[in-house]
Design goal:
heterodimer, A: alpha/beta, Rossmann fold, four-stranded parallel sheet, two-stranded parallel ribbon, 17 helices, globular, B: alpha/beta, 2 domains, 15% strand
Amino acid sequence: MGNLNIALGALLRHLGCDVVQGQKPNKRSLEMGVRYAPELVCLPFKVTLGDMFGALERGADTLLFIGGGDWSCRYGYYGRIQCSILRRLGYEFRSIFVGNKDIKFVASEILRMNSGSWTTAIKNWTRGFAVAWHKSKLVDEVESLARHFRPHEQNRGECARLSHKFLKRIDDEDRVLALRKMKKEIREEFCSIRRTGQPAPLRIMLVGESYCVIEPFVNFDIIEKLGELGVHAEPFLTAHRWLFYHAMRINEDRGFPRKEARALAQPVWQYNAGGEDQLSIAYTIRAAQQGFDGVIHLMPFSCMPETAALPVFERVCRLYNIPFLNISLDEHTGVAGVYTRIEAFLDVLSQRRARQDSVENVYPRSQRVAIQHP
Amino acid sequence: MAVGIPQALGYHYYNPLWTTFFRDLGIEVVMSGQTDRKKLDRGINIAPGETCLPLKCYLGHALALAGKTERILVPRLVCLRTKPAIRLGCPKMIGLPDMIRALIPDASIVTVNIDLRQQSEEASYAALARELGFPARRARQAYAHGVDVARARQNERIALARASVESNGRLKIGMLGHAYLLYDDFLNLGLLKKTRATGATVINCREIEAGDIDDGPGDIHPLSWYFENHVLSAARRFCTDERISGIVYLCSFGCGAASITAEVIESEIGRGHPVHMLKVVLDEHTGETGIATRIESFVDMLNLRREREL
């Protein structure tokens, strides 16, 4: 998912695993996933299943699943069902589930990999965690800078080139100190990109299902595409925040803690229904409050929580007067269709921006925050 | 005061409880009536395209009540069991009142929030009564009465079903699926009637004592969805019962839980117990004839197999 492999790979290498650096999700993994997954299951299931075929063929003997447990969304069952599908097809591997339940088992596995010594295990874990943490933060930084500068770059592709270069360097570097030093360099290089004089690009908030927002393969690289069109796209969740929240409950939503987000969304969506739906709704409201120009909602076709929340997104966007585009993705979604819709949406937004003053008069800001508490 | 109850989704699980509860409190109950073409079409018109058929049907029922009654009961089923493990409703059950508020803004709704992690079911109903202006003591009495009536009804159904399983001769087919599909003859396009018309006996999965799958000597990892777990345990009952010749699994297109449940039934429960399963996926475009043909051929196949064995 996104650039998650960099941090996670580092952590596992430090714990003594041989990490099979799987390929990024690609057309073949999608094909394999679609062929062997249940027909009506959601897209992330199919893509990740397909990735596992790739990893197993490249020599992996253990598959690590993050998540699982008591979820009301299908994500909680991914690992288990994928395991049984792969086993039925004759693949042999060991499976480890990192979730709420099997902490003991995971700990014993870590111990085993460190030749049974707790001291080594704890030492390696601390070190691995530190390296992974720094890498992950740095990747997040690179992604955020690229998002920020891409709409302004004079030579198209400059940001992509820089982020590619730095991501490679982050992946290869294993010393915490060097990683820390790299941060400054990254900032400087991104700041020295030659910029056009475009004053204020359109700003769009991307909300929805985490995999669809984060993984460029399934959302047709929407962040980069929007950037190239001169639009600043801000995802509500990044790989870094997803990983540390779901695997370790470390909350990295700086400036907008989950508690606050929950309180903001609760009047319209009382419970989190399984995915990141409540957080998404909160970020939608916040986008409107912060003056974003529009919201794009990405979800896999038939996603349980996002489908249920869809009417609520529409209601919130009506109330707060912010344009909203829902894109539902599955294996049949074509890139041209998605891009056409996005371009049409951008046309609407820029026209709207042009008459912003009159809009401000028709819908005064005071009327926008009129949600009734149930 | 009158409270409207849409006869869809949760109604089919909680039926006599709700009506008894409100009548005991002295509140008039207005039912939305059986599902028909008009209700379903109105629901389809306002529902987001990707939602499942039962939800579209629910919206139709809620719309039919929206002009008629002051209040509509829209339940929120979050956590339906805490021991031995947490069992949840599906996301649309968790967000139902919020969806209704978003899609039918002029309906005034009351909700009963069933989240056993926070409070008992009884306390939830007491909170509902308090919202309507009734004291907690009367609410508790009404709730207890409602539970009794519901249990008596369920026991009747179970006794009937047991009698038909034990009867001799005819082919027996187990029906799996959600109560809101199995008990709604319009939504399931008369699937149960059609099966009976072929001469087979139908055993409804809501009418066997299956219990949560945790209770049995299970080798299967349970699911966290409460209603799906029931389907799973019923499926295992059907598989291990030699008197049952085949299973029909009824689900709706766009039901996220069904895609996982079907996979678990096929791969884990079906393993070791050779059983014939017909999976019927319903949506608003499903034709009655198609269903009839599939059921007839399934029953024919089971009959042929049975003759060969005899």
